[in-house]
Specification:
By secondary structure, the chain is an alpha+beta fold. It contains 4 helices and 6 strands; from the N terminus they run H-E-E-H-H-H-E-E-E-E. The protein has a single domain, classed as Nuclear Transport Factor 2, Chain: A (Roll), CATH 3.10.450.50.
């Protein structure tokens, strides 16, 4: 009887571990594919044209980002097969927020600087090279999977840690959120 109990515990531990390893591998695969996709600039097929401000009317002008161009930008993320609609909604909120900083219509050829658009929007950081140049050496430091949600801590190099939140949809992990992990007081991203 004792032999069967030991065998059962070992079998349970082995099955649980392999189940977790399958999740970990699939989650890491999604994150790595996305980072490589972003490094290649796949979301920016039209370059800076996505973020071109539009000006309508006279006097009390309406200022906004070109919605059609932004929708093409969002669709590039959808077509990647790596991003959830929750992530895309966060991008939309980002542009809606920064839209209020658009100034008056510039003269032809005049460059516009919009505060907040000078960071890597996709990775939510001003230092994307710290991440993108270290994709091959990333290490999962923490992973928590509950049902169809995963919260993942990733280290790219000393003091460069990120958090990824994913959702499993139709048997596929999709990224919901990317942000800095400032758990470490020496984090390169802490303010």
């Amino acid at each position: 009887m004792k032999y069967f109990q030991i065998l059962f515990v070992l079998l349970l531990f082995t099955c649980t571990k392999s189940y977790s390893q399958v999740y970990d591998k699939a989650i890491k695969g999604t994150i790595v594919k996305f980072l490589k996709w972003h490094k290649e600039g796949k979301e920016e097929k039209l370059g800076e044209h996505y973020f071109v401000p539009r000006y309508d009317g006279t006097g009390d002008r309406k200022r906004y980002f070109d919605r059609d161009s932004l929708e093409l930008y969002y669709n590039n993320f959808r077509h990647s097969g790596l991003i959830s609609e929750l992530y895309i909604e966060q991008l939309k909120e980002y542009f809606n927020y920064y839209e209020k900083f658009l100034g008056d219509k510039p003269e032809d050829g005049e460059l516009i600087k919009i505060e907040g658009l000078d960071q890597d929007i996709v990775l939510n950081t001003f230092e994307p090279e710290e991440i993108l140049e270290n994709i091959g050496t990333l290490k999962i430091t923490k992973i928590l999977v509950i049902y169809n949600k995963a919260l993942v801590g990733i280290n790219f190099k000393k003091n460069v840690d990120m958090i990824f939140q994913l959702t499993k949809t139709d048997n596929k992990w999709l990224i919901d959120y990317i942000g800095a992990d400032n758990t470490n007081k020496n984090s390169a991203f802490s303010q």
